[in-house]
Amino acid sequence: MSTKDDIRRVSAQESALRFEKFDLDSAWTLGQHIRSLAASAHLVLSVDIHLNGSQAFFAAMPGAKPDFEHWIRRKRNLTLRMLRSSYGLGLDLLEQKTTLDAKWGLASTDYAAHGGSFPIHVHGVGCVGAVTVSGLPQREDHNLVVEALAVHLGLDPHQHRLA
Questions:
Q1: CATH fold of 3-160, please?
Q2: Residue 88: burial class (beta carbons within 10 Å; 0-12, 13-18, 19+)
Q3: Mean of pLDDT over the chain
């Protein structure tokens, strides 16, 4: 797929993957699901879910590096600031041939436009948090989060992932 195709697809994901409600129990269930997916596939990653400004879930798989947490923080910062997926924003910047710093003055020490963070939007409320994964190549980080969100919402994960 081309970058433009991916941008359209990620935009569709961001529109479709929205919740009627999302609370601490939802964060725990979603986090456990992502952890189970990672364990069954022997993936080395960390997962974080932030809800209303607080960490609601965190897990690191065996072999996870401390640096994963720094990537999570930077990707999550971008998602919570722009209310979009970090991968979608990264694709937009790539297409525009620019950077976070050049476009918005955002330092790479605090923000990362790499796949793996996705906003948690609740209908009638807005963005209440973010789910973020780090440790895989960025497209795989993004797809893992999208698939888990789709399952959590009762949707077919294969229809929502990037090819």
A1: Beta-Lactamase (3.30.450)
A2: buried
A3: 97
* CB-CB contact of 45 with 68 (8 Å): yes
Residue 133's pLDDT band, with cuts at 50, 70 and 90, is very high
**Cα separation of 143 and 141, whole Å?**
6
Tell me what pLDDT residue 163 has. 85
- CA-CA distance, 47 to 38, in Å (whole number)? 10
User: Which is it for strands 18-19 and 117-122: parallel, antiparallel or unpaired?
Assistant: parallel
**What mean pLDDT is predicted for residues 112-118?**
98
Q: Cα separation of 163 and 152, whole Å?
A: 20
Q: Is residue 67's pLDDT more than 90?
A: yes
